[in-house]
Amino acid sequence: MAAPRKPRLAVIKFASCDGCQLSILDCEDELLAVAGAVEIANFPEASRAVLRGPYDLTLVEGSITTPHDAERIHAVRRDSKVLVSIGACATAGGIQALRNFAEVGSWVPLVYPTPDWIQTLKTSTPISHHVKVDYELQGCPVNKHQLLEVVLAFISGRRPFLPSHAVCMDCKRRGVVCLTVARGEACLGPVTRTGCGALCPSYGRGCFGCFGPLRGSANTGSLSAVLQGHGHSHEELMRLFRTFTCGAEAFRKASELHEHDASESHERP
Amino acid sequence: MSDRRSRNIKVAMLARVEGEGGLEVRVRNGRVTDVKFRIFEPPRLFEAFLRGRRFTEAPDITARICGICPVAYQMSSVHAMEAACGVTVDGPLRELRRLLYCGEWIESHALHVVMLHAPDFLGYPSAVHMAKDHAGHVTNGLALKKTGNAIVALLGGREIHPINVRVGGFYRTPTKRELHALVEPLERAREQALAMLDWVKGFEFPEFERDYEFVALRHPLEYPINEGRIVSSLGLEIPASEYERHFTEEHAQHSNALRGAKRAPQEGDPGALKPYLVGPLARYSLNFDRLTPAAQQAARDAGLGPVCRNPFHGILVRSVETLWAVEEALRIVATYEPPDAPAVPVEPRAGTGVGATEAPRGLLVHRYRIAADGSIAEARIIPPTSQNQRSIEDDLWKFIEARLGLDDATLTWQCEQAVRNYDPCISCATHFLKLRRVEG
In chain A, what are the domains? Predict the structure, then answer.
């Protein structure tokens, strides 16, 4: 009897830092076993042997920022049985989504002396704004153990099993003293999805939201009120919500409210 | 079969590099008439959106330029900010930064040597394919990489985009006991680095030397990572703050691309520019005397002299630097005394600061102008791959002409290998390089 065909894996990059796909190569102990369980059909960062689609599982890193990429993602979707977007860029637009709050035309000359040659969109958007996405794995970068779980789940035909509680809960479980309550520090832990195990608070700094907002239950208004009570300004809170997952709706809206209130307080005599 | 004396070689998507780039070579009548190392990684506009952010945010934000060398971005940015604010970080905090950076060198070099570059020398499309015949060497390299990552994770909190680096130092510093846990893996890493070098020195290397102007940091006592003056093999010696007086970005008409270049004013041509080389070859050739005795001996045993001008030997030099970084990490771990505080206070003041450090791929320069309130008014980031872009093209230009007898597939692969000599990081280079090439 012939051996069953191995699932074909593709890893495709859009605008990003490469860190999330590097997480695959950072699974030093598991890499060769995973490579043995799948056929690496299209993973340019790791191999020059690129096979044509279709692929059983495609991991997509990066956000859509150029007209060309807005086309290319549709071809990737057509070639993919299951498409999983990985990381803050692919799931929320990444740090480059800061352009969504500005006039990108005024930015290009700050970087490039000949702006006319730069083809870029006004926005940086997640993959799900362009094509159907079967699963999203958050994180800036993704947690490599979660990434392994996602790959193993999809190649064995099941849904991944990943926690979805708040970072705040991890602090309680680990016995990390609350930075906001004890020291008045700004922390996004109550509204941010876990994935890091409360890494920043355990190092004594507030969470800055790498894994994005909790799905459906991120009470940013309440958190903002608490943090303002500790003396944090609207400008500071706007910046806090506006980093690596600033394109995620809950954080975008919160940052816009603070931006609005900051400009109001400037206008007041 | 096509006419070998006139042909085009095109690599639409370079594999085993970080980021998206391609290659185009045009040959006419036995002469190379055009070489283009194309970058089509999309722009992310870091230098624009850094404006208005707090000076303390630069290390976290600029780390996101590159997932392979985030520590380099964090280190150049904190040094630039501290220079702007008139603060020097010394003692154990300085040592911990150096240790963190050693971790990144080990991790990045082992990745490149074993996973990205070695397959070229042995004729495999990837390290996974290579592992079927060379499992021991791949496993050895992965173990080495894991130890580098373990250092970054211990000091930085995680391997990619560490969270523990701040302007002034760290958020939390390790105890002696925590650091001591690295001794055993580092002792093994020393053997693994020697084994890696022993393996790669047996590869076949093309006879190919280039007369580069090397540019790297040089420190009075140390092999350079975080500090030193910028020196060149032609006698330049300047503080980092003068970098932009001597180096610039070239806007070459033939390719319409921005590339790093050294100002070389001549009589009748005050704006003349020339290429230069940063990275392991430059660092090694300008600082061989600063390597540990064991690293120097290992280099000699691998057939290297104190200066290395063959870009294909980059895999040897990276292996030597890996061994050096392991030994330096062991030294720091052994002599570490925890600091009184995890960071020194840094108050913003209006001013400009430049930070230049040695990323695994070479000199990485950050310049920031900050306002009195601590907001960033201007940011400039010059990554190593941008600086090397012209040398990459010049290498190909000279390399190909002597090899026009090869068939297309072989020559294409060798061209790719010549680009991978640089371990190019296109994700880094792109916020700064032009993306759409105007044909003509």
Answer: 8-155 (3.40.50.700), 167-267 (no CATH)
